[in-house]
Amino acid sequence: MNKLKLTILTPEKVLIEDKEVDSVTIPAWEGEMTVLYDHIPYMAQLKEGILKYRDGEKEEYMSIFWGYFEVDKNNVVILAEDAKISKEIDEEKTRQEYQKIKEALITADKKQSVEDLEIELKKIIVNLKLSDLKKKQKR
After folding, report:
1. What are the tens digits of pLDDT across the range 57-83?
2. Number of Cβ within a 10 Å radius of residue 67
3. Residue 137: CA atoms inside 13 Å, Cβ hemisphere, count?
4. Are 83 and 64 contacting, i.e. CB atoms less than 8 angstroms apart?
5. SS3 call for 11
6. Residue 125: is it exposed, middle or buried by C-beta count within 10 angstroms (0-12/13-18/19+)?
7. What does pTM read for this prediction?
C-alpha cells in the first residue's frame, strides 16, 4: 500500500520525522481533516486538538497546539507551537494543573494574564482528552 511521510516539529524538538503512515487526521482551523495518499497540495492553520495517524491497524494519538501544516507530494509536515505524544502525559499531574488554572482564572485581574491562563487551560483540556483516549485504547 502507498504511504504518506509524516513529520511533526515544534520549536523545541522533532517529534516525528519521515514516518510512513496510511493516514493523518489533523485538527485544522476549518475543522478536522484526514489526509490520505495522493491528497492535493494543501496548507492550513492548526488549532488545538488531537492529531491521529494510522499505520495499518495501529493508531497513534498526540495533542497538538496551534501552528501550520502542509501536504505536498505525499509528505505531511506539521509545524506546531507545542505537541505531546500520549505517553508524555501524566494524567494526575495534568488534572492538578487544571484545578490550579481554574482557580487562578477566578482571581486574575489583568486581561493579559486571563488570556494566558485561558491558553494554558485549552492545552490542559486537550491533554486530558488525549489521556482519556489512551485509556480507551488499553481496554
Report:
1. 899 999 999 999 999 999 999 999 999
2. 19
3. 14
4. yes
5. coil
6. middle
7. 0.80
Cell of 130: 488525549
Which DSSP string corresponds to 47-76? -SEEEEEEETTEEEEEEEEEEEEEEETTEE
Rounded Cα distance between 50 and 16, Å, is: 15
Q: Where are the domains of the chain?
A: 4-86, 89-138
User: pLDDT at residue 131 above 90?
Assistant: no
Contacts of 54 (CB under 8 A, 6+ apart): 21, 22, 23, 24, 60
Name the amino acid, one letter, at 15: L
- List the grid coordinates of 119: 491558553
Burial, 57: exposed, middle or buried (Cβ in 10 Å; 0-12, 13-18, 19+)? Answer: exposed
- Which class does domain 4-86 fall in? mainly beta
What residues contact residue 57 under an 8 Å CB cut-off, 6+ apart? none
110 grid coordinates: 489583568
Distance CA 127, CA 45 (A): 20
β-partners of residue 63 are 50, 84
> Could you count the other beta carbons within 10 Å of the beta carbon of residue 87?
9
